[in-house]
Structure formats: structure tokens, C-alpha cells
């Protein structure tokens, strides 16, 4: 389903296909057992898997061939990551909103925070490119999960570092 765009999601989807099925099954079980938290956990699993797709860096050549400015390259990568994450999780989100309308705010908030988490993961990947994410990047993302307001600081920080790192590669 991810035909001509960045490879992270096509590889990640194939590697984690079973986890996607389990997440969708959790929604079915949450509807049957009248427990919306199972379904919300399914959304969390989908967004976590989506952000893990950006754990390891690709070859410098795969970045260089884009021949875009760093800001446009990052915008493209973030947009693709958010779209694929959104479309992967939207069936779960819609089902939860239909069957548990009183949990609408919680479901949409978790979906929104998950998308911000994916955005931070994409930017963190390129903030140390071409190396792998180090402990500081992972700690910042983990802290922003525990304290969600930090994500509003982490995203611009990683964005600035990513543009600086990619400036020499994307000329």
C-alpha cells in the first residue's frame, strides 16, 4: 500500500504486519467487551510501530538523491510519515469513535499525540543523520511521552538540528 514513497513504512509494515493485525483485533475485542481502553491501546501500538520505522538511518545516498533543501526534505518525510500513520490508525479511531462516542476526546487526543510522536521520531532520526539515534534523542522522545507538553519543545529542537545536519548532504 506504500508504493512510490519513502521506504520506511513499506519495510516497517511488512516486518510488523502481524502486530497490525493484532492491533485491529484489539479493537474488535474492545467493542465486544465494551472496553474502549483496549482499542485505545491499539492506536498506541500502531503509532509506536510507525515511529519505530524511523529508528535506523538509511544510506546517505538515499537522502542525497532527493536534491531538496533540508526544510523541504524534512517536510516531505514528516508528511509521508504522518499520512501513513494516520491511514494505518484511522480505521481504529473511527471504530472507537462510532462505538464509544463518549470516549471521543480521549481517542482523538491519543491519535493526535501519536502523530506528534511520529513527527518527533522522524525529526530525531535526521537530527543525528547519518548516525543512529543516540541515547539523548531517545530520552527526549521518551520524556515527551511521559510529559506530553515537552513534545512542543522537542519537535522544534529536532527540526533545527535536522536542518543543520542535512545542510551538507542536501545541497
Please state the CA-atom Rg, rounded to the nearest Å: 17 Å
The number of helical elements comes to 8
* Total beta strands: 0
Order of helices and strands: HHHHHHHH
Structural class: mainly alpha
Strand content: under 5%
How many angstroms separate the termini? 31 Å
Tell me the overall shape.
elongated
pLDDT averaged over residues:
88
Return residue spans where pLDDT drops below 50 for at least 5 consecutive residues: none
Approximate helicity band: over 70%
Q: Biggest β-sheet: count, sense, barrel?
A: none
Task: Show the helix and strand layout.
Blueprint: H1 7-15, H2 17-32, H3 36-52, H4 60-64, H5 70-99, H6 104-127, H7 135-146, H8 151-166
What does this structure look like?
With 171 residues, this protein is mainly alpha-helical. It is 75% helix and 0% strand. The protein has eight helices and no strands. α6 (104-127) runs antiparallel to α7. It is elongated. The two termini are 31 Å apart. The model has no long low-confidence stretch (mean pLDDT 88).
